[in-house]
Amino acid sequence: MAFCDELKRLRKEKNVSQQTLANNIYVSRSAIAKWENGLGLPSEENIDQLVSYFNVPRENFFPKIEDQELVEKNKTIRKKFKIISTICYFFTLAVIAIFVTYIVVGVNNPYIFNSDKVIA
Questions:
Q1: DSSP labels for 100-116?
Q2: Does the reported pTM lie above 0.85?
């Protein structure tokens, strides 16, 4: 069972809300929601607090968390990084193209670069 499913199961089994759990382990309710939706993983300190709160063995509560889930999270992060870097690359190319176009048009257009109005 995935960490997110196990956390949700244990929380419902104990009959506590996300807010109550968050208050007891000193995190935000949105952190609990993020973990339960599979959008993030708790820190080592938060894992220890969850294990203590639910009074379960760590290896039962977080089976193979370091293996498959981290691999999947890293794939997602890499994918998002590639998208962001591609966008930045094309934005930079667009800025350079606009700058070069301005220079080329300016050299051929006496109204943009008028040498008579140079201030020394």
A1: HHHHHHHHH-TTTS-GG
A2: no
DSSP 62: S
State how far Cα 63 lies from the chain centre: 23
Residue-wise pLDDT tens digits, 46-80:
999 999 999 988 876 666 555 666 677 778 888 88
- What six digits make up the tokens of 96? 């350079």
Q: Running DSSP on this structure, what letter comes out for residue 33?
A: H
- Cα(72)–Cα(61) distance, integer angstroms: 19
Q: Tokens for 5, please give them.
A: 């499913």
| Among 80, 56, 65, residue whose Cα is nearest residue 35 | 65
Q: Which two tokens stand for residue 63?
A: 């089976």
